[in-house]
Amino acid sequence: LNSAYQEFISAAASSLEAKENSGGQKTPATDAALENFKQRWELFRVACDQAEEFVESVKQRIGSECLVDEATGSVATKSGQPGPSGLPPISAVRLEQMSKAVRCLVIELQQGSGAGGGASHPNSSAPFDARFTEDTAQ
């Protein structure tokens, strides 16, 4: 991002310099400098978008890891005791099953079928119990 920014600023300066050197007239040198400026602007925008996507993915990953820690009881002081949320921990496998089921339901709703209820999605690797019963093996 920094490199793309520096190249963009350099292209802006070169464009202004070329315009000043030509006395404000349109010349092949000013056209080339302006085209370079446009290219650097686009590259800078792409770099900004990539940085934003990276930050968003890290944010989601951290959030997911915190959720898994909370749900599986990794943050609980004693095994089997309710975590800070007051809920007993669940297994990581169970959490993944519930997460997949929720994603499938969201996709179904977005596609307009609305027929999900608590039913298992055909792509789900394990059946989903809508009552969210706890696994005994944690």
UniProtKB/TrEMBL annotation:
The record's Gene Ontology biological-process terms are:
cold acclimation; leaf senescence; regulation of DNA-templated transcription; root development
Tell me which InterPro entries the record gives. MED32
The scientific name of the source species is Rehmannia glutinosa
GO CC annotation: mediator complex
Protein name, entry field = Mediator of RNA polymerase II transcription subunit 2-like protein
- Annotated region described as Disordered, given as residue ranges: 112-138
From the broadest rank down, the organism's phylogenetic lineage runs: Eukaryota, Viridiplantae, Streptophyta, Embryophyta, Tracheophyta
